[in-house]
Amino acid sequence: MEILAFGVTADEKPLLERAFAGQHEVRCLDVFLSEDTAPIAAGYEVVSSSVNADLSGRVLRILAAGGTKLIAQRSTGFNNIDLDVARRLGMTVSRVSTYSPYSVAEFAWALALAVNRRIVRASIRTRDFDFRLNGLMGRDMHGRTAGVLGTGRIGEAFTRIAHGFGMNLLGWDVEHNPACLELGMKYVDKDELFASSDLISLHVPLLESTHHVVDEAALRLMRDDAILVNSSRGGLIDTDALVAQLREGRFTGVGLDVYEAEAGVFFLDKSLEAVEDDTLARLVTFPNVLVTSHQAYYTGDAVGQIIDTTVANVADYLAGRRSENTLVPS
């Protein structure tokens, strides 16, 4: 069988081909799955998609009409997939339910430290042989308070690093993680976490209940010198409200690896095009903001695990098996 994989990076292609070698052929495309590209999948029973694919009802109907029966998404998140339509069309949808939590947790800390110690600004200066320290003063993390929204596997890994820095730990989640409690974490309500934390890191999934969990009210509760990091999903933050607060000169730093309107922008080269997103254009101009393009997961360890799980998901589909990774049929 030949599998069609959309949104494959140059680094990912040899890993995918090697993982499927001896089992199936895999055709890798660097274009992302959308309404425009979906017709390419005609004749392919199995299609693999990336996290920023458009798998709305319209796209799923195009795929189903072309003979696609399995969507194997190479990510944990699946808010981009219309599962109800997939179910009605009789399609199978799978995802990667877990991969290295350290990849995302470590990157979240990289963002936090970079904005705290002004690493990007310092690097730009030294490239111009400007070695002054003016405007580069950061602060110790030791003894300060880290607020962690979402204490699952990634949130726990982030918490362990915070504990290593000697920070006080606040957490919020629907369930309390025993490992985080052992590290000394105190679970509080969201308002107290926002108000009391020097560093806030988001590690919750994007659900109806968590959409814009960091809204204008939450941002106003935060300390003026707080650091906010989001390496989870862009929709967790009301970006317009964040920009408004940044314009008031608030926050020591904001590190964003995700953006709520990133589809059609992230993972693409837009350097020669006019910027159409005024909010994103304004966001990246703030000197205390660092934006990266959804790369927190992007380590060889994590990508390898994602691909191995995708191979297993295809094998399960062909054998008629279901697993924790099967979203449809549930």
TrEMBL record:
Pfam families referenced in this protein's UniProt entry, alphabetically: 2-Hacid_dh (PF00389), 2-Hacid_dh_C (PF02826)
Domain D-isomer specific 2-hydroxyacid dehydrogenase catalytic, residue spans: 9-326
Keywords: NAD, Oxidoreductase
This enzyme's EC code(s): 1.1.1.28
GO molecular function, one term: D-lactate dehydrogenase (NAD+) activity
Family (UniProt): Belongs to the D-isomer specific 2-hydroxyacid dehydrogenase family.
Entry keyword annotation includes NAD: yes
Protein name: 2-hydroxyacid dehydrogenase
Gene3D superfamilies per UniProt: NAD(P)-binding Rossmann-like Domain
Domain D-isomer specific 2-hydroxyacid dehydrogenase NAD-binding: 110-296
Domain of life of the organism encoding this protein: Bacteria
EC top class named in words: oxidoreductase
